[in-house]
């Protein structure tokens, strides 16, 4: 071992002795603090065991909330009625009318109804027939269309709600939509 | 069967300050004291009792301190990234070591030197000198090999020696 290495070892040993003569810094921690923390942990553990044996208040509240949501959903089903095509029977539900006949092209007036409304019964009925105006007169309104092509009120209610409503809801909706006609 | 309270109390009296010093490798003093308190409280509830309660305590304190450090860094990153620079959780003012007798010059220098070490070097020095653990036990505690621990120990001492030989700026 060289002198340099020996000196280095000696210095190292001296440093270790110096460091070992020093003590770690002060701490305000006491054993009573530890005891209190231990009691706290013990209480937490005991609480967890108790909660595991019996349902907690929190879990009861979860079940109560679920029951309330289910009751609301059932109530809504009773008032509004089952969704079209999903319920068996469908008692008290208005029958879906036949698709409306294709529109006529009124060449004399230059009015063309396009595309043909409800040519395909699967297309949603809420999309109104698009009117294109080829003449010089003012654009016709939906009331100018033939009576056969005007959507029925029952259909309007169904299209807006996207469900098959119960008769009570239908009558209310129709009264709101056309108050003059309902009487 | 858990460790008896008398045994835990004896370990606390002998090692609590060293454990706090060890935890301060990663976190500041209040958090370090809390980590040590939690570790002793867990030891009281630990059943069956660990084979080596002292080594168990150092390991638990180390894990707890690192978890607290990670949490603090994450919070700091999320909340203060745009308002402040990176914050070192270790103490600005060391005060890590105190003189057992009269004369505190060595203690101040040693504190500064210890605070200037990298974490992996600092923990080896604390475990070897103040906890009195052998290099083999330190290696087991840290999950490293004894040669690695030995190399770190020598490097830490070398750096501390250099640091302590420099003139102290407060006492020219």
Fold topology:
The complex is a heterodimer of chains A (183) and B (172).
Chain A: H1 3-20, E1 22-24, H2 31-53, H3 57-80, E2 111-113, E3 131-133, H4 153-161, H5 167-177, H6 179-182
Antiparallel strand pairs in A: 2-3
Chain B: H1 5-23, H2 29-45, H3 53-80, E1 97-99, H4 105-115, H5 119-130, H6 135-142, H7 146-165
Helix pairs in contact in B: 1-2, 1-3, 2-3, 4-7, 5-7, 6-7
Could you give a quick summary of the protein structure above?
The complex is a heterodimer of chains A (183) and B (172). Chain A is built from six helices and three strands.
Task: Pick out its properties.
heterodimer; A: 183 residues; mainly alpha; two-stranded antiparallel ribbon; 3 strands; 5% strand; elongated; B: 172 residues; Rna Polymerase Sigma Factor, Chain: A; Arc Repressor Mutant, subunit A; 2% strand; globular
Description:
The complex is a heterodimer of chains A (183) and B (172). Chain A has 183 residues and is mostly helical. Chain A is 49% helix and 5% strand. Chain A is built from 6 helices and 3 strands. Chain A has helices at residues 3-20, 31-53, 57-80, 153-161, 167-177, 179-182, and strands at 22-24, 111-113, 131-133. A two-stranded antiparallel sheet of chain A has the order 2-3. The radius of gyration of chain A is 41 Å and the shape is elongated. Residues 84-92 of chain A have low confidence and may be disordered. Chain B is an all-alpha fold. Helix content of chain B is 67%, strand content 2%. The mean pLDDT of chain B is 85. Classes of the chains: A mainly alpha (183), B mainly alpha (172). At the A-B interface, helix 1, strand 1 and helix 2 of A face helix 1, helix 2, strand 1, helix 4 and helix 5 of B.
In percent terms, what proportion of residues of chain A is strand?
A: under 5%
In whole angstroms, how far apart are the ends of chain B?
A: 57 Å
Strand-pairing-aware structural class of chain B: mainly alpha
Number of domain modules of chain B: 2
Unreliable segments of 5+ consecutive residues of chain B: none
């Amino acid at each position: 071992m060289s002198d340099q290495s020996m000196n280095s070892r000696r210095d190292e040993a001296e440093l270790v002795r110096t460091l070992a003569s020093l003590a770690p810094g002060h701490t305000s921690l006491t054993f009573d603090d530890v005891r209190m923390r231990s009691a706290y942990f013990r209480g937490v553990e005991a609480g967890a065991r108790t909660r595991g044996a019996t349902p907690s208040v929190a879990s009861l509240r979860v079940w109560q909330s679920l029951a309330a949501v289910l009751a609301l959903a059932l109530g809504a089903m009773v008032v509004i009625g089952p969704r079209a095509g999903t319920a068996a029977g469908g008692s008290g539900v208005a029958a879906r009318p036949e698709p409306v006949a294709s529109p006529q092209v009124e060449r004399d007036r230059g009015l063309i109804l396009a595309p043909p409304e409800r040519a395909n019964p699967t297309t949603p009925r809420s999309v109104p027939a698009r009117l294109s105006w080829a003449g010089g007169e003012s654009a016709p309104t939906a009331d100018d269309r033939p009576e056969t092509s005007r959507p029925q009120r029952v259909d309007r209610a169904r299209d807006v709600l996207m469900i098959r409503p119960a008769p009570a809801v239908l009558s209310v909706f129709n009264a709101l939509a056309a108050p003059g006609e309902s009487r | 069967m858990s460790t008896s309270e008398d045994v835990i109390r004896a370990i606390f009296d002998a090692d609590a300050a060293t454990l706090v010093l060890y935890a301060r490798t990663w976190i500041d003093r209040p958090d370090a004291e809390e980590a040590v308190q939690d570790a002793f409280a867990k030891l009281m509830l630990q059943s069956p009792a660990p084979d080596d309660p002292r080594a168990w305590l150092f390991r638990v304190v180390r894990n707890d301190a690192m978890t607290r450090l990670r949490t603090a860094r994450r919070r700091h990153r999320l909340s203060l990234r745009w308002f402040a620079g990176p914050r070192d959780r270790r103490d600005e003012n060391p005060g890590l070591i105190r003189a057992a007798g009269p004369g505190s010059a060595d203690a101040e220098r040693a504190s500064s030197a210890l605070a200037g070490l990298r974490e992996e070097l600092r923990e080896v020095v604390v475990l070897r000198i103040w906890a009195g653990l052998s290099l083999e036990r330190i290696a087991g505690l840290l999950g490293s090999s004894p040669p690695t621990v030995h190399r770190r120990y020598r490097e830490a001492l070398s750096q501390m020696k250099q640091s302590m030989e420099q003139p102290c700026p407060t006492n020219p």
